[in-house]
Write a structure and sequence with these properties.
single chain; mainly beta; five-stranded antiparallel beta sheet; two-stranded antiparallel sheet; 40% strand; globular
Length: 72
């Protein structure tokens, strides 16, 4: 059974939840610049995920909305 979420931009419209994102995999943002490397996925909790660039070092992470990520 597919999980669903409601997007805040379009009230009442139900969309399919993104596919499972696995920690350690690489993801891209919506509208990801072509010259930027993919982000490494650290973890996801609910609708929030934490990603990092390999060049940033392990202590630096960025929190992003899960709906803004696509498998890289």
């Amino acid at each position: 059974m597919a999980e669903t979420i409601r997007q805040h931009e379009t009230p009442g419209k139900v969309v399919a939840f993104p596919q499972r994102l696995v920690p350690g995999s690489f993801v891209k943002l919506q509208h990801h610049p072509s010259d930027m490397p993919a982000f490494e996925l650290i973890r996801c909790e609910g609708r929030r995920c934490w990603v990092r660039q390999q060049a940033w070092g392990p202590a630096v992470q960025w929190e992003v909305a899960r709906r803004n990520l696509n498998p890289g």
